[in-house]
């Protein structure tokens, strides 16, 4: 590659980086400005950050929304990963005549949009509320129960399990480990990158989920952070500086988890086994 080609490549990459970074820069700058400055498109950092934070705290119950989103996301992540990993492990490791048919039906469920099953789900949770109010409508459990596992996660674990060294399981069985012992003591530690990637994907999807919590969570004290941001933007005269600050606060947990597990996430998505 010639020197001119290298310079052209670097210039192109710099321009692309600026284009992708600009929305984040505008978001951060807007959080420090007044609503009028945000709507006028100001790109200069302001001095209204503390005032925006005070207005945010006084306007909405930010702590409650963050707590609800955290509870829902952590519960959904751990339970869904446990179920999906067991299913993916079973589909790949254990042989049976009908498993491929079941797996194909499972994959077909990915073609059904969530909006098509939302009303039946709401009716089902309405019935559940009559018998088990603790997991019925307007409870935190109802916000994550429809997502306790997904066809994508099961598919993801099964595909990664194809590269899992089966000899380790045979050695574990010879040493007297039960099937659950082989799963938790051999499979889980070996597939930690896959679990990390699945955890990041599940947590981010749960944290950013908006439609189903909007339907099923009806009390203000149960609202999640996406619902809180939506309510801020739907007021008669929205304060865009406050909204931008709320978006930054809502982005921090997912960004921190991603950067902390970034190496494992990349390895897990590539299907590597360590």
- In terms of structural class, how would the helical and strand content be classed? mainly alpha
Overall shape: it is: globular
The number of domains? 1
Mean pLDDT: 88
Tally of strands: 0
CATH class: Mainly Alpha
Order of helices and strands: HHHHHHHHHHHHHHH
Write the SSE topology:
Elements: H1 3-30, H2 35-39, H3 49-59, H4 62-93, H5 99-108, H6 114-131, H7 140-144, H8 151-161, H9 166-174, H10 179-190, H11 192-207, H12 211-216, H13 225-233, H14 240-260, H15 262-269
Commentary on this structure:
The protein has 15 helices and no strands. With 274 residues, the protein is mostly helical. The longest helix has 32 residues, at 62-93. It is a multi-pass membrane protein.
What's this model, at a glance?
With 274 residues, the chain is mostly helical. It contains 15 helices and no strands. The radius of gyration is 23 Å and the shape is globular.
Keyword list:
mainly alpha, 274 residues, MetI-like fold, 15 helices
